[in-house]
Amino acid sequence: MERCPLCRAALNGVETCRRCRAELQSVKRVEHEGQVLVDAAIHRLSLNDVVAAGRLLRRALAIHATPEVRALWRLVTVLSRRSEIDEHRPGAADDLDPRIL
Asked: pTM for the full model?
């Protein structure tokens, strides 16, 4: 966290805002939990588990919705829609490149 969520003062890694004296430990903890969820979602995507990645990103959005998390959520949404379409398309399994699997 670079800026205080209340007064937007620069923080420089401190636990208490120098301007408004806001206690930031709990905010930093939530930010960290959100990042852990995003990291886990990226890992699940690397394993081609779009469903699990989506669940993790929904949780991350609920606690720490950064522009990066929103962009990743849009990507996962597109990927899940494509996989649903491919599952219902006749012969879709024949189109898969075995090098990707």
From this structure: 0.71
